[in-house]
Amino acid sequence: xxxxxxxxxxxxxxxxxxxxxxxxxxxxxxxxxxxxxxxxxxxxxxxxxxxxxxxxxxxxxxxxxxxxxxxxxxxxxxxxxxxxxxxxxxxxxxxxxxxxxxxxxxxxxxxxxxxxxxxxxxxxxxxxxxxxxxxxxxxxxxxxxxxxxxxxxxxxxxxxxxxxxxxxxxxxxxxxxxxxxxxxxxxxxxxxxxxxxxxxxxxxxxxxxxxxxxxxxxxxxxxxxxxxxxxxxxxxxxxxxxxxxxxxxxxxxxxxxxxxxxxxxxxxxxxxxxxxxxxxxxxxxxxxxxxxxxxxxxxxxxxxxxxxxxxxxxxxxxxxxxxxxxxxxxxxxxxxxxxxxxxxxxxxxxxxxxxxxxxxxxxxxxxxxxxxxxxxxxxxxxxxxxxxxxxxxxxxxxxxxxxxxxxxxxxxxxxxxxxxxxxxx
Length: 425
What we know:
This protein is an all-alpha fold.
């Protein structure tokens, strides 16, 4: 039955079905194959159960917050602020890209949204200053990778739903790896800038930095509402999502005035469509995952990997090697929904901290977004910047290498992902 399930799923993908519809079709065939052993009413009930949870309210809210931020002029003010802070550094626009994405990561939780928002103004600017199309696209893609790692993170919410874990603790688990990624990316930008003699900008006096900070102050406060509010128990994760949407709406309409009221229906539609894709995937995963679990494949996978090693670190390295290969061909959310029902029991049996396991899995699959040849971020920046994708693939390799180093560090040193969550009650 399991073989039928996956053959049907793969054939549906080849024919051209969306991932969600492919899972529904494969699950329906699996139910029909089992005949009277399974009530067909299980299909819609299982799909509803897959999204019938309070925690998933955050998904459309954080997507909407990111849309409001990008359309309301907050992104451009963050870019101006970052230029004032790091503009004097050689190859400053690369650092501006990473720093801007680091701040934006604390709001949207979406790598693609951040890549579009920062790529539109910064890729042409880098091209004009002689950075080269490949490096310009690679920097934007690397910076956008921070979006799903730094809280809030939509993939973390999805993992929490699949593994029945605390969303708040998973959010906190992403902070240290995210900061390590950002620091390493900026070091790479510095090295490349020195080797290629990229230009820097005149230093901005402290008064100029203060003015830039004042202009961007409302935007800079948004990540504090999310991260600070959740960390110190002032708001729950869902309340933080509501607060940041209302804050972004108020600032965009009445402070920066970059957004007109007549644009709100289009923004709500775009955010709703993006959220619907994610929620439909989770709904489609309900019957599909149930049939996978019924096949007892998780026990087979556990026994196979344990026959190789029972050391949690070694097992995590094996799992991550597999997920890195998967991430090269499947987008992160579908990969999580398909494979996590099998891998989560394995981590539990070996005593791997579920928060560390979640952070490692999310980080791993996000790396797939910028992994050649078909990483989604590579295509996004290529489209946004109107540049050829081949140079971006070559220039992304140093950033990809550092991301894999951080992934290994989070496996070998669990406190990188468990220290901050351990301070929550």
